[in-house]
Structure formats: structure tokens, C-alpha cells
Amino acid sequence: MLKNSWNRRRRAVQIVMILIFLLPLMAVNQVIGSLSSSRILGVTLTDPLAFLEVVLASKTMTLSFLVSALLIVGAYLALGKVFCSWACPVGFLIEEVDALLDTLKGKSKHEQKQYYWALPFFLMLSFAAGIPVFQTLSPIGIVYRTLLFGLGLEALVILIIIAMELVGFRRGWCRMVCPIGAFYTLIARWSPIKIRCDLDKCILCHKCTKACAYTADSLEKVISGGCDFSVSALCTRCGCCIDACPTGALQFSLKSGANQIGKSNAIESNVVAATNSQGFSRRDALQGAGLIALAGLAYKPSQVLAAATPELFRPPGAVGKEEFLAKCLRCGKCIEICPDKTLLSAHLDLGLNLGTPYFIPREVPCSLCMECPEVCPSGALVPLDMREVRIGVAEVDKDLCYAYQGDVCRTCYNNCPLSDEAIKMEGFQYPVVDSEICTGCGICEYVCVMEFPAIEIKRKDRSESDKKLN
């Protein structure tokens, strides 16, 4: 076996994972979305943590949405905590920073603990606030949105994570803050993939423990205690320990005997106990999350947050503002599938809209192709007939409109997709909007010949129409 073969394979997979999700930049839409939620060859997959956040924030769930999350849960039940070392772009970035620090300062031992407080905290905060909080601020989502849709102030989150590494919190984000790592740690204990140690080949050189960044303590007890298998839930199956072993004593294995599992479970219990003895304990985290949930039930901050969030024009089929903020996964699939590149991804300057889709009618209007609702798994966008869409309503400024000043102009009327229905010509001269039919697509505003458009899309109170749709 070639030296560092597992590390090279893993690096290749990490790079391929990033490149796959960048395919829409080359107009290849067989893979769209991000690690929050994606559609791959027509199959929708959703991160289970994102699913839980949206369900708790919106208090609703659909069967198809559940299935899309269970597919990922099944994968990581089998593979273990491989997401952190094989798929996560933030993990890839942190490893590169660590490698640079090891080169400059010499290799140092990493803290062997996993903090669980962030998992219940973000879930209950999402429940209380009515917004999937971690999905909004997730550095994983920010990485993909930056690469796909452009740089925004939210990229500072990535710089903060790098700064944590530089000041000495090695893998600090992964261990102490990231709820995704905590979630996969909880389910990784059932993975059949283990690190098997051939004790006859092991020479106790401890090169494997020096190479391990996540579970060196339990690996040390495996080789020193005479236990053949390591089943630590902290293990990311990165293969660094296997590559470091000079005798080939360590290998991935699907086999495990009852006695080895018993010993390794005892080791894992010691590691978890050590974790809980310092910092936030899981009991403290659950108590704090419970208080957050009770506070949320007491005054319903989702309404306050929605009211304080800037108003935007949403894709066709978008539910009401409060519900949309709760259900949107910030995955970007609707933006990528848009054939006219109408939709944009909101940056941090738009507050809690961060990561959500919107458009600016004057720049690029909506053609009402109705493809975006088809790729939304959470119900933030619902499939509608084109005539049912109510993004807003067009309003004519008679003081600016050529027609009302005595000139001839039928530009808005001629370009309206519902010509002679949404916009009619009164007396064959004056454009008049039927607010009950107008979809708010923005085409009329886009084509208006005036420097400051004489016809503009205004936001409409959609609460009643939302109730009808639901």
C-alpha cells in the first residue's frame, strides 16, 4: 500500500465533493444545491440536522421531506462520522490550516473531546425563533453560497473559524461549536466500520495516535489495552492512523466480536465521561435549550423577527414571510435551477434573509417558468399554476407614465405574460392593472422605458392567499 494512500484518497474525495456542487456554474444541473439539501440525478437528499431545524422552526413536516433526510441518516449510520473528514468543506479548510501550522510550529496533540451543547442549543433556538438558525449562519452553507453566488460579509464567519485555529483552538469549530459534528457523533456508534488493530503486528510505536486528530485517546487504549477494535464515535474514519502505521497493523474492518465491542464501548464511555466533565455538559445544554424553548413559546419571537427582516420579492410559489423564513433551507437549489438567472442569494446586509432567494424586478424579472418550486423539498416554495402566483402587484405612476402624459407607449402591455388580463389598455391609451390577476412577475417594470420606472411591483399582503393555499 502506498504511503499516505488513505489521506490521498480522502483529499481527492473532498475536492471532488466541492467541484460537484459547482457544476451549475457550467450549466450542468444534474447536481444542484449544497450539503444542506441537494438534488442529485433527480433524487433529493437533505441534511438531517437541516431537516430537524426546519421542522422545529416551522412546526410542519411532509413525508417526502422526511424521506430525503432519512436517506442521509442511513448513509451515516453505515459509514460513521465520515462527513467531517471526507465531505465537509470547512473541515477540509481547517485541515489545510492545521497542516500549515504543523509545518511552522511543529505538530501538536489535539484536544480529544467533543462538545455536544451546540446540537440541542441550535435545535431549540430554531424552535423558539421560528428560523433554522444554524442553516442561516452555517459556514458550510456560506462556503458554497460564496463559491456559487458571490462574496458577502457573511464570509467573515470563515475568517473567524480560521482565527480560532491560529490562536490555538485546534479543530475548535469542529469540536466545540459545530452541531453537525455532534449529531454525527451520536449516530456513529452504530457504524459497522471499525479500525482493527492486529496486535501481533503492533509494535507500540504510537505513530497512529500522533497522527490522529479526533480520537487518539481511545486509540491509545485500544493498542495498549489489547483490544482488537476501535469503535469510538469520535472517529471520522479519515485513515490517518492507518497511513501512519509502519507495520500495517491497523486497517478498516467490518468485523467485530462481542468481547471487543464490550471493551471498546467501555473505552468510549471513558472518553464521553471525560468530555462531559469539562465545559458544557449535555445536561446543562439540555436545560439551557429547554429554557430557550419555553421563552420562544411565551412570546413567539418568530413574528417579531419576521417583522424586523427586510422585505424582498420571493420566487413564485413562496409562502408567507414568517413561514418562508422558517422553511427555507438556504440550499440554493431554486437559484441554480432558474433558467433566466433571476434569483439571487441574500447576503448578510439583508439580515435574517441571509442565504434565502429573492429577485429584483428592475434588474431581472421572473419569467414564471415555475421550475423553482419543483426542487424545494421543505415547502417554502409550493407548486402553483402560473395564474395563481402572487409575488406582488404592479402599480402605475401616472405622473411618470408616457401614456398618461399624452404620448403613445404600450411597452408594459405588450410584454405582460397575461396581456389584456393583468394589464389592460383603457380607451386604447392608458395601462390599467387588475390587481386580482397581476402575478407580480416584474416584467412590466423591467421593460418600462423610463429611467425611473413608471410601473413598479409593490409587495402585497399575502396572508389570505397563503391561508387558501394551505
UniProtKB/TrEMBL annotation:
Keyword Hydrolase: no
Spans traversing the lipid bilayer: 12-32, 65-94, 115-134, 146-167
A Pfam cross-reference name: Fer4
Alphabetical keyword list: 4Fe-4S, Electron transport, Iron, Iron-sulfur, Membrane, Metal-binding, Transmembrane, Transmembrane helix, Transport
Gene3D superfamilies the UniProt entry points to: 3.30.70.20
Residue ranges annotated for the 4Fe-4S ferredoxin-type domain, each copy included: 193-222, 225-255, 317-349, 355-386, 429-460
Protein name: Polyferredoxin
